[in-house]
Specification:
Length: 206
């Protein structure tokens, strides 16, 4: 794979979308071929799966179904867009990826993490991010930043969102080379300065 795969992770309201916008503008200014996508979604089939996942009418959805739908949406996105873009040498920015399933369905819901990773390898064709930014913020603070109607996952109890954060912290501790921990309570500019340093280092290595 010639391209660079960069993923953005963290709880709701941690600033993922904000930072992706800044990174995207920066890479475009540098005339880099950049592609931005979000999970779940990004292509037509996966966006349909997204609407099922986030629909507040689907409160009865079981943990296994939820996990597999996230993986199905991811599998289609990887096949249709991520893999071809990386092959062409593009820089792919993805709002959430496999770490989200480990954190939300694994640590949050209690789905077996080894199983998630095994299905994850199948769904992603083994494609892994070159670098992952984890924007860390405590759950109440992150959620308080959101001022739109909450979706099915966002409505879950604070104890759930706390487990998700602990899950992300565990992922970051386990893979410090790939996952860059960032204090998301800093200002947007401070956070972006840290992010850009990592991006510049990554670009220099190519
Ligand atoms: N560092 C920051 N400090 C304070 N507010 C922020 C910061 N980063 C983003 N926000 C605001 O918080 C809200 C959620 O940010 P967003 O980037 O959409 O988070 P996410 O995509 O992770 O849910 C937005 O209103 C955004 O303007
Ligand atoms: Mg967002």
């Amino acid at each position: 794979m010639k391209g660079i795969f960069i993923t953005f992770e963290g709880s709701e309201g941690s600033g993922k979308s904000t930072q992706i916008r800044l990174v995207r503008a920066y890479l475009k200014k540098k005339k880099k071929p950049v592609l931005f996508i979000r999970e779940p979604g990004g292509v037509r089939i996966s966006e349909k799966i997204r609407s099922i996942l986030l629909d507040v009418a689907n409160m009865k959805m079981g943990d296994e179904c939820e996990t597999l739908l996230y993986m199905a949406a991811r599998a289609q996105l990887v096949r249709e867009v991520v893999a071809p873009a990386l092959k062409k040498g593009k820089i792919v920015l993805c709002d959430r990826f496999l770490d989200s399933t480990v954190a939300y369905q694994g640590y949050g819901n209690g789905v077996d993490i080894a199983t998630i990773k095994r299905i994850g390898r199948f769904a992603t064709c083994g494609i892994r991010p070159d670098i992952t930014f984890f924007f860390d913020i405590d759950a109440p603070k992150g959620l308080s930043r959101i001022n739109r109607p909450k979706d099915r996952i966002e409505r879950r109890a604070m104890s759930y969102h706390n487990r998700v954060r602990q899950g992300y912290l565990a992922i970051a501790r386990r893979e410090p080379g790939r996952v860059k921990w960032i204090d998301a309570t800093q200002s947007k500019d401070e956070i972006y300065a840290a992010v850009q340093q990592h991006i510049d280092r990554l670009l220099q290595g190519r």
